[in-house]
Structures are given as C-alpha cells and as structure tokens.
Amino acid sequence: MKKNRVIFYLRTFGLVLMLLAIANCSIDKGARENNLANKEQNEAASKKQEGPKARPVTQLSQDDILRYSKTNSCYLPLLKDSSLYNPGSDVGFQWLELFNDALSEGSKYKNRYLVGDFMALNEDLESRGIEEKNPEMAELIDFNKYDKKLFELFDAAESSINDEELLYAYIRNEYSADTTELINFYEKVWRFKTPPYKRKFSRMKDKVYANGQRVCLCEAREDTLLLIAQYATSSKRLTPSVLEDSAGNVISTSYVQYLPIGERRTYYASQYRITSKNWESDRKYEKADLIHDKKVGGGNHRVTYYKGRAQLPNFLLMEPTKSYPKAMRSNGIHEVALRELSRGMLGTANSIGCIRLSDFGSKFTRWWVPQAARFFVLYTNDRYHKEMSLESIEGQLPFKNEKEGNLFREWLNENKPLKAKQLDIDIDGSYDNGFILDAYNLYGKEYDNQIK
Predict the structure, then answer these.
(1) CA distance 121 to 138
(2) Which domains does the chain have, with CATH numbers?
(3) What is the Cα–Cα distance from 185 to 66, expressed in whole angstroms?
(4) pLDDT tens, 217-272?
(5) Of 266, 265, 262, 240, nearest to 253 (Cα)?
C-alpha cells in the first residue's frame, strides 16, 4: 500500500514537471516571436524615418538651390543670380567658401556663417513679411551632451524666480562640472529670449514700410544648410546730413534717404568677415565669457560707441573681403540702440548703415558666431525697400486709442517687467508707435487670452 502511494506521487510529480516544461516552451516561443516582431517593426520604422538618402549640397542643381532659398536664406550664397550681387563681381559662392578657414582645422565651429537677406519684398513686389526663428538648444553642438529636461528648464526659467531656481538646482545636481558655463549662458543670453517676431509691415509715426529683411545664422552640413536662427533686421536707408557753424560745432543733424541700390549698390559688399566681437555695458564680461570666446576663435570686452555717444551693444565688426574695395568699411551688426528707432522697425531698411538686431538676437548672435566667420549680404534692387500707405494697414492696428494701449502697457510692465524693459515699454504713451506694436506682436495673444 505504501509502495503504491509512493508510485502515485512520483507519477503525479512527473506529470507536473512535464506540464511546466510544455508551458515554458510555449512562453519562450511566444517571447521569441514577440521579440522578432518588435525587431522587425523597429527596423521598418527606422527605414521609414530615414527615407531616401539626401543628396550632398554640392550635387544640388541651381533649380534645387533656388527652390530651397525661398524658405531658407542659408542657400542664397550658392545661387548664381547676378541680380543679387554687386555689378561686375563674381556671381555665386562655392560650397567650401561657406566655411571659416581662419579657425583651426579641428574646430567644430568652422561650418558656421551668416546671411543677410535684405529683401523686404516678395517676387510680386509686395511686402514679404518676416517670421523669426529662435534657436533650439538641442540643435546646437555646444549642448549635444545634455538632456531634454535641461532644455525645457532653460525655456521655463524666464517665467518666474521659482522656475529659475529649479533650473539652477538641476544644473548643479546633474551637470556639476558645467555649472558655471551653463548658468553663465542662461544669465548672459538665454534669459533675454523673446517670442519670434511675425509681421508684414512696420510703422513709424505716419510712415509704413514693407517688412522682410532678415539675418540668418547658418551651419553647413554635408546634406543640408541648417537654419539655426532667423532674426528681423534693418539695413541702410538713411544718411546723416550735419549742419555746422563756422567754428565746426554741430548745429543740427537731419537724415536724408540713401538707398544702397543701383549705382550705390557697392555700398554693401556681398561677402564680409566678422573681424571683431565686442560687448555691452549692461552685462559684465567675466571669465566664463572669455573661455567661451576662446572656443569660438575670439572676442573681447570692449564696448563700441557711435560718435562717442550712443552705445552700439554687442557690435560685430564686418570687414569687406578684398573683392569689394568700394564697400563701406566700419559698419557692424549690433543691437538696436537709438531710442528714436524702435525694434518695431526691424525687418525694414531704416538704418544709417549698420545691421540692427533685437536685444536677444544680438546677444545670441554675439555668443554663437565664431571670429572671422563669413557674412554674405544679398538682395535685388527692386525688392530692397518699399514705403506703403496708411490706408493699406487700416484695421490692422491692435488698439483704437491711448486708453486701450495703456492697459496693455500696464499689463506688460506688471507681468513681464524684464520684457517691458527690453522693449522700452513705459506705463503710458502712444498706442500706435513702433514700440507698442512690437510688444503687442510678441505678447498680444497672451494678453488677449488673459483679458478674456
């Protein structure tokens, strides 16, 4: 009897083991099948994402380059269109001419260059409009070792002191070795970031101008010319006329129109080098700034002044290359600095020669551009500038009277004091000048949503 019970238990135990083995086999087979299916799906998704391999930029036809240049001005220097260039000069640049040959061979910044696309009008000779593009930190080689959360904290930090403290704490905990560099970049550059401008026209008093001029920050890659950032700019329309007394003292200064088109087209060269990168008095130049400048080939703490009086913040001296001996020298790229010309005029030809950018645009460009980078200036005579009628913008202004304008001014100063200061928006003032129109362009949607 006892022997029979032992045999029964052994047989039962054997049956259990057999069933477990079969189950494990089925599980292993299912797992292998699932793994195989997932692998095939991943490979298919990968192939789908890759798509057809892009052609090298050097193999693009002129038709391809023309098509790409209509949405990305980084391609303009490769376009062999004589109307874009100085009369009698060479037409179109080569791929290798985009690169900075003054930097060391191993520099990771050799492929950075600037393009000044000074065409305010489209091909139908109507206002082209400008839509800026701010840089994405994830696209910059300077930040390729950092994670997505860091970038999100950078963008959120300007909203409040609490968000800023969260950013600082994350940097110290996750990237302690880079704390000084990252916090310095935020405090000197990124915290000044404003939403991208988007507008079709600019107004100054009773004058309205077509808008579309831009400066583009570009990187040459083997299979693309990457648009890193795009900022509204103002190039030359005016020249000063100075009245002096017999002793040489200035009595008055007025401005007359002087467009660099036609016979005056040689005023701007088609190619420059950025030969000096200066600073501004509102930001302290520190060791971290010096270290970064050395990485990108150079820079200094000097501050540039126009005639010894008006500061030209973040002045980048643009030196014409030898191929353009008649081009005006000593011009530069800098932040809008004159109170009488608002940032709202950016995108139009309204400077006396220099190339003007917004507060953030000038700070980021000063940080990003390497010493001796190439700067290409291209435009056609017929698309450079246009004055529009007041009637053409009727109904497009956001405020009907000073009361409505001042409500917006108060809201901006209360909710975004740093931005109000950047944009020169006082508590009260005009409801239709370039300053307030510029500020509304940036923050009007947020204001309207809160009011509603």
Answers:
(1) 32
(2) 57-134+200-390 (2.40.440.10), 139-192 (no CATH), 399-451 (no CATH)
(3) 36
(4) 999 998 899 999 999 999 999 988 888 888 778 787 788 999 999 999 999 999 99
(5) 240
